[in-house]
Specification:
Structural class: alpha+beta
CATH architecture of the largest domain: Sandwich
Number of helices: 8
Strand content: 15-25%
Radius of gyration: 20 Å
CATH topology of the largest domain: Jelly Rolls
Largest sheet: 4 strands, antiparallel
Strand order of the largest sheet: 1-8-3-6
Shape: elongated
Helix content: 40-55%
CATH class of the largest domain: Mainly Beta
Order of helices and strands: HEEEEEEHEEHHHEHHEEH
CATH superfamily of the largest domain: Jelly Rolls
Length: 224
C-alpha cells in the first residue's frame, strides 16, 4: 500500500479493494483536517466531494425559518454522510447543514472519482451503501421518535445516553432541545418534572443525573 492510502488502515471494510480502486484513491483522495465548528455544507450548496470521516464527529441538522433546529444524525469515525451520498448519486444540492462538532480528520474524494469507484468496485460500493443504510435507519428512528414518541421518554433516553452511569450531563437545555427536535421551554419544563421526581438535579448551569435506573425505566416506555 502506498503512503497515499495509508488511511485505509482505519477502514477495515475497504481492506479487500483491488489494485485499480486503490490506485484511484491514491491519485484522487485527499486527507483533510478541520477544526471544530467548521461548516462543511449548507442548504443549497452543491456537493463536490464524498467525505469519509476517519476521526471526530460531524453533526447534520436542519434549521427552520423560525430558528428551530433538529439534529438529523451524526457522522462518526469510519462513517460517511447519507445526505452527501444522496446528493452525489442524485446530482442534487444539499438540503441541510453539516458542522464539525470536534476536530475532524477525513478523506475527501472528488465526485468523478466517487462515480468511477461506485461503478467499478464492488467493495467500495458495498462500503458506501452499508453506511448509507445505517444512517437511513437512524434517520427513520428519529422520524418515528419525533412523530410518535413521548417527550419524557425521549428526554430520559437522551440523558442516559450522555450520562449512562449518572452524574453531570455536558449539555445545555437548548442543546438537548436541538437533539430532540423540540423547544427549549419544553425540555426545561420536563427537566423540572424530573427534578421533582428525584431523577435529576438542576442548578445554575448544572444538569446531573441522580437516578439512571429510573430514567432507563422511563426511556423503555418509548415506542420501539
Amino acid at each position: 500500500m502506498s503512503m497515499a492510502t495509508d488511511w485505509l488502515h482505519a477502514l477495515p471494510a475497504l481492506d479487500t479493494l483491488d489494485d485499480a480502486a486503490r490506485g484511484t484513491l491514491a491519485r484522487q483522495a485527499a486527507l483533510v483536517q478541520m477544526k471544530a465548528g467548521t461548516v462543511l455544507f449548507r442548504p443549497g450548496d452543491a456537493c463536490a466531494n464524498f467525505l469519509i470521516v476517519l476521526e471526530g464527529s460531524v453533526r447534520v441538522h436542519l434549521l427552520s425559518e423560525l430558528g428551530r433546529e433538529i439534529v438529523l444524525y451524526r457522522v462518526g469515525s469510519g462513517s460517511t454522510c447519507i445526505l452527501t451520498t444522496s446528493c452525489l448519486i442524485g446530482n442534487e444540492d444539499y438540503s441541510a447543514e453539516g458542522v464539525t462538532e470536534t476536530a475532524v480528520s477525513a478523506v475527501a474524494l472528488p465526485k468523478a472519482a466517487f462515480d468511477t469507484l461506485i461503478t467499478r468496485s464492488g467493495v467500495f460500493r458495498d462500503f458506501v451503501f452499508r453506511s448509507f443504510g445505517a444512517r437511513l435507519t437512524d434517520l427513520m428512528r428519529l422520524v418515528s421518535e419525533v412523530a410518535f414518541g413521548r417527550i419524557e421518554c425521549r428526554l430520559a433516553e437522551a440523558l442516559i445516553n450522555h450520562a449512562p452511569a449518572g452524574g453531570a450531563v455536558p449539555l445545555t437545555h437548548q442543546a438537548l432541545a436541538t437533539e430532540l427536535g423540540t423547544a427549549r421551554e419544553v425540555v426545561s419544563r420536563q427537566l423540572k418534572e424530573f427534578e421533582h421526581r428525584g431523577l435529576v438535579g438542576l442548578g445554575r448551569g448544572r444538569l446531573e443525573v441522580l437516578d439512571p435506573d429510573g430514567l432507563r425505566y422511563l426511556a423503555a416506555a418509548a415506542p420501539g
